[in-house]
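Ticket opened by: R.M.
Priority: normal
Category: complex prediction / small molecule

The reporter submitted a protein together with acetyl coenzyme *A and asked that the result be attached to this ticket for the collaborator who will pick it up next week. Submitted input follows.
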Amino acid sequence: MLTNAHETLNLGLEGVVAAATRISRVDGEKGELIIGGFALEALAPFHSFEEILFLLWNDRLPTDTELADLKQALRAARTIPKASLNLLEAAAEQDADTMDALRMGAASLGLNLKDDAQTQSVTAVAAFPTIVAAYYRLKKGLQPIAPHSELDHAANFLYMLEGREPEPERSRALETYLNTVVDHGLNASTFTARVIVSTRSDFISAVVGALGALKGPLHGGAPGPALDMVFAVGTADQAEPYIRSLLDRGERLMGFGHRVYKVRDPRAEVLSQAAARFYQRAGDQKLFHLAQEVEKTAVALLAEYKPNRRLQTNVEFYTALLLHGLGLPTELFTPTFAIGRVGGWTAHCFEQKKTDRLIRPKAVYVGQVRTETVKT
Ligand code: ACO
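Result attached by the on-call engineer:
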């Protein structure tokens, strides 16, 4: 922090409280995450994504009828416009990054949409998986698969990627992941969405801006590199020399460290348990054990290299492992994060809309005050 006369400069806005929210609470010292009033561990592995979406939008769990209605509304909004598909085809021809394609596809959803918060929220949540799956297939030279008319949200995403109905344990593992990442306080992408809505702009604009923020490697772009690190280590005996060489070069270990958590991210715990269950039944056990070894070594070496920083495993490390176990390629990791997080973004948009207060911080001017006249 720098001070200039009576003004304080806080470049990362650490500790600044800019919203009151009922959506989630992050306790970085205790390692606790509350989602809509419930502890993450009690919610994510047991509920459907649609139930949690309803909870975040309405501040209570749905009745059976309300849940059925929301599922129906989402199913009805899954098909994306022809113009969006054309755009994705053009992006695939240019071999665009999947997050860029999702951002462009999401922006195109606004083309024929009413400027109505509820419609835009349902459309964004319902259509993100369709955009990602269609783009993934187009990039591989395959035809997109139309959304399933009966499957729930998580299962439908796997169906549109692969063209066959997924086994229940795969849908459950993906759903646990989506629920785990659905919201997380005033993180960078959520803040971006809230800033956009605070100007009374529309929700599609807000989620498009949020996607731009999520894409960066310091936010949602870390799981791919985290998995690359596990593969690069290769065998448990190489964990220490390999990670040491990264830290000696001053590199950051992806999947470790967090702005808020100073203990192990509780989402890492939920996802490591989900990954352990999944790998035991259907995965490469050797890879899972290697990842555990890499995690242990990384945490120990971070404590040695950065003794005062309290750097622990974050959500991205086991995201990578779980999504890889589900058969998702690295390029889909961050887009799949977005498919979960758009639930939280839209919930925050509703909250911000109600608050109706323009978010407008200040900058401290550090340039000169020139006294000479400007020549024309
Ligand atoms: N590996 C090595 N060193 C690290 C790491 C890491 N993963 N994270 C922080 N540090 C070090 C920094 O180099 C810095 O060291 P220094 O004081 O000697 O210069 C110190 O710890 C503090 O770092 P900051 O960048 O100030 O900490 P910040 O709170 O901004 O960092 C962040 C949070 C960006 C997540 C960081 O820990 C990081 O880059 N992690 C790796 C990327 C990652 O996993 N991102 C996903 C985060 S989870 C999410 O957004 C969903």
